[in-house]
What we know:
Elements: E1 5-6, E2 12-13, H1 20-24, E3 28-29, H2 31-39, E4 55-57, E5 67-69, H3 87-92, H4 99-103, E6 106-111, E7 114-119, H5 124-127, E8 132-133, H6 138-148, H7 169-183, H8 190-206, H9 215-231, H10 244-258, H11 269-285, H12 314-329, H13 343-367, H14 375-388, H15 398-409, H16 412-420
Parallel strand pairs: 1-7
Antiparallel strand pairs: 2-8, 3-5, 4-5, 6-7
Bound molecules: iron/sulfur cluster (SF4).
Amino acid sequence: xxxxxxxxxxxxxxxxxxxxxxxxxxxxxxxxxxxxxxxxxxxxxxxxxxxxxxxxxxxxxxxxxxxxxxxxxxxxxxxxxxxxxxxxxxxxxxxxxxxxxxxxxxxxxxxxxxxxxxxxxxxxxxxxxxxxxxxxxxxxxxxxxxxxxxxxxxxxxxxxxxxxxxxxxxxxxxxxxxxxxxxxxxxxxxxxxxxxxxxxxxxxxxxxxxxxxxxxxxxxxxxxxxxxxxxxxxxxxxxxxxxxxxxxxxxxxxxxxxxxxxxxxxxxxxxxxxxxxxxxxxxxxxxxxxxxxxxxxxxxxxxxxxxxxxxxxxxxxxxxxxxxxxxxxxxxxxxxxxxxxxxxxxxxxxxxxxxxxxxxxxxxxxxxxxxxxxxxxxxxxxxxxxxxxxxxxxxxxxxxxxxxxxxxxxxxxxxxxxxxxx
Length: 422
Ligand code: SF4
């Protein structure tokens, strides 16, 4: 019996056939999908580039048993046609596509007695909130749930609260709902709401919940959210800037978010790896110019991103608020949905992802010769960041996680946010 779905009601989406997902993502396939696609006998007559396999082995080692769809020289999936449509879909129908393609941009996460549905903001239509409401797509979502959610999902434990504490599902969800309610506060700037939420998570991180459960936790969360709002009733005019080490660690995070990880033909081999390594060194040093690691970004001096870019455009305030709220409502920021990290660490990472989006929006603006950012800069920046957030293996690795933990423990996440989000 499938669990009931919890939908992100503030989000709309329909596919607008931009083909972006088929250009940006590496599609890993199962053994049975591999057999099915090979049995479809794709040839040049179907539009497959001459000499191109349709499936490739993942990794460099011949004994690796993981497979992915092959890419065209520009990085697009081998099955993407020049009208931006899927050849498998056109020839054999939607159910013949790999499951990863059918599910995108949805994500399904256990949430106690429910399955929380999230959406990936790497899709421009998700960012633009274009399309049908989630409630109108219940039928399709139930069908996808049946395909991707294992029967054992009802037994999955909640994410840990922190490295030292674990609550049960109802109390974990109470905390998530309190953060979501803070982000939903009407008429306040996005950055102020994020500073409140990060302040609340900091207090939660410092508290012991051994005897604070159920109704007591409700009271505690109410006191905490009131306290952070009273302490910071408006956006501060001046804040302490992030320290030099924090900026360095942060730029190294940016380098991971800014790269394109679906390899084009010119992004293979030792030469490209060497370029990537040099780029990461230059991000760590913060001297000279930023190295563009994907289309749309230009080489600009690091210093050029350190001045104010003005207030966040109203349209982007809405996008950023919706982004964080959809991630919260779908638990797409901690536990199984995010490298198995505890709730506190996952929310700090979400805060850093937002700061990365602001930094990338600055970079896009400067690259276009502007010193003011626009809603388009933010829309693109959010798609770039969310392409990796929770999906790129690099973001789950020890060194990356350690950098994020250090920034949180040193209280630098809020300083970075206040510094780069204006
Ligand atoms: S198989 Fe089809 S839907 Fe999946 S990435 Fe390729 S073109 Fe896109």
